[in-house]
Amino acid sequence: MPSKRYILICKRHKFDAMPTVKNMVVDWLGDVKFVGRNEKGLKINFEIALEGVESTELSPMETLLASLGACSSYYIITILKKQRQDIKGLSVELTGLRRDEPPRIYTEIHMKYIVKGSGLNRNFVENAVKISNEKYCSVGGMLSKAAKIVYSYEIVEA
Amino acid sequence: MPSKRYILICKRHKFDAMPTVKNMVVDWLGDVKFVGRNEKGLKINFEIALEGVESTELSPMETLLASLGACSSYYIITILKKQRQDIKGLSVELTGLRRDEPPRIYTEIHMKYIVKGSGLNRNFVENAVKISNEKYCSVGGMLSKAAKIVYSYEIVEA
Could you say which of B21, B44, B95 has the minimum Cβ distance to residue A21? Predict the structure, then answer.
């Protein structure tokens, strides 16, 4: 029989290997409005886009595109900073093409990164954009299973 | 040669068959903060969650879960309303399990809908939850390609 200490170590190991758990709650606010909140009370408001109605909040599908842009940008910045590149700004323009039949998923997503900095090395930028999208970005890791993701970049001296 | 009218009809048909295009821009605000905006200027703020740092905005991956909750809830409500069900409230608790290796995607997402209403028909609710998740919700249509999505519901008389 294993000792108590052995069991504890095993349990701890099992716990450490557990995936991170994220919890969110989404409440219907009436009409086509929703609010999502995490355990600390941070919120996001949504409004379902209806034809002919001026929205006051982003839709879930718009938010999906924005999440992809933010997530992938973060890794690009982190990688370039580690390589001591003088990155001063980053914007990404995202375009999602939705199909007509339900579920109206994006079948293609195009991303164009505009990377601003002083004397940025083109190879480092290209590599950072590639690694972020193909290895690190979790949102991209999910959406790329459903949509073809195409990315490009432009370097602006600043 | 086709008449002018014929060409116009063809062009229109081609346009109607085009997928909807969504555009977003995401800007780096410095540090680990980002803002996404659509063409009408509606915004969402993001903050990348770092260990030991108290976030002031939701992370892209938290937002992904919330988008799924809002999108799927919308269709549940719409379906139940069409069936003249007296739905008075809807909340959904979402739990995402992320794997440890990059990209740190959700491998499983659990959703529990709490449907409030007066005399709601259990079969109609079950059917609405199922159809929303399996047919209509675009966010779910994308995320279900990467994660196993498990859902349940509870009816609360109100």
Answer: B95
